[in-house]
Every structure is written in structure tokens, then in C-alpha cells.
Write a structure and sequence with these properties.
Length: 254
Amino acid sequence: MLIKDQTVLITGAGRGLGTDLARAFAREGARLVLNYRSSESAAHELAAEFGASRAIAVHADVAEPDQVAQLVATARGHFGAPITTLINNALPNFSFNGDARAKADGIGYSEFGAQFTGVIGGALNTIQATLPGMRTAGFGNIINIGTNLFQNPVVPYHDYTAAKAALLSLTRTFASDLGPENIRVNMISGGLLRTTDASAATPEAVFDLIADSTPLRRVTSPAEFADAALLFASPWSRAVTGQNLVVDGGLVMN
């Protein structure tokens, strides 16, 4: 199915990487469901940018199954078509500032629990809510947003990194489970992006260090990362599932 014929749900679309993902898919003509939890005005402004026939902004906390179910129903009512591509981008509250993060001797399980609830719980809720529509369409793409930190743990984001590593496991097991139904599940993992709301607290010296360590000699932008998501939603990747594509300018090489 071409991207222009798809209905795409992007969680956490009201800010940061979510807005770049939305613009990338809008450029290809997709119908967009822009989920937000707290960035209401930004999400509605983004939807207005694309027009009511192409985009709708819908509130839901992805960690709450009932809210996710209502989101999917609202999207189906608006577009008259099921969601066929899901991008799990929503991020629990987190600041990408290594100097301010708890180290191994200080972090508690509550921090891990919050990340697992948002990352794994959120992905599980959105996948289960959108599966019936994908099955009806006989087609589906699930794209989970990961991180290169579980391959290159250069900063002590212990809780965030653990949750994203678990999301890769979910990506692979769900890919195996859903593949016979023509529903593909993949992950795109970035490093530090320059710049999103979440990375705004990152010291400039860290950006410079990453750029110097990267073959492309620059830090990947949110727009560059978002463009890679188009691959997994397009027919060009129709035989690809259960994969983790690292998009960080070559900093981490699989």
C-alpha cells in the first residue's frame, strides 16, 4: 500500500520528533492522526497546517488503554478508514541531560517503572487498539522508535535505555506473531537528535563530541530521522519485518 493511501497514527506528535514525523508523512500524502497528551495547541496547529481532510489531532495518554481505544475510534470516524500505520513515538517525561540523571548507585526502580509503563505499556496499548483495523485492511505497519544507547551506552540513561531495549524485544516477537497477517513490525533507533524538546538540555560540548565521532561529522536532525521512517511504511520495505534500523550518521554500525 502506498503511503498516500494510508492512515498513519503518530503518538507524541505535538512536539519534538513527532512534528517532523508528521511533516514527512504529510509530504507523501498520508492521512494523519496526530496524538498528543499535553501539547494540545501545538498538535492542533500542526493538524491545521495540513487541513482537516488530511489530519486530525486527538488527545490520549497512550499509557491508558481506554483513552487509546477512544483515539482509534475517533480517527476511524473522522477518516472513514482504519489506521494502517502506527508510529510509537510518545516519550514519557524525560530530559536528555546526562549530568542530571541518576547514576547506578542512586537510581530507583520507580524511574524504570515509569519508563516501562510509558514505552512498553504505551506501545502495547496502541498496537492492540489498531490491530483490528489492520486485520480488516489485510495490511499493517508498526514502527517503534528506539535508541542506539543500548548498543552504545555512553550516557547514564539507565531507565530510558532499558525500556527501549525491551521495546526492541517486543518489536521482534510481535513481528513473528503478526507476520502471517501481513502486519510488519520494525524499529528505528536514533542517537541524540539536534535538536528536539527532549534534547534541548544537552550541553553543546556533547553535540560536538558526537559530531566528531560520527562518519558524517554531524549530529542527525529530527527531519533526517523522520525521513527514514518513510522506508518502513512504504512498499519498498514490504519484505522487511523484525528489524532495527539505526539512524545516527554511522555512529553505531551493526
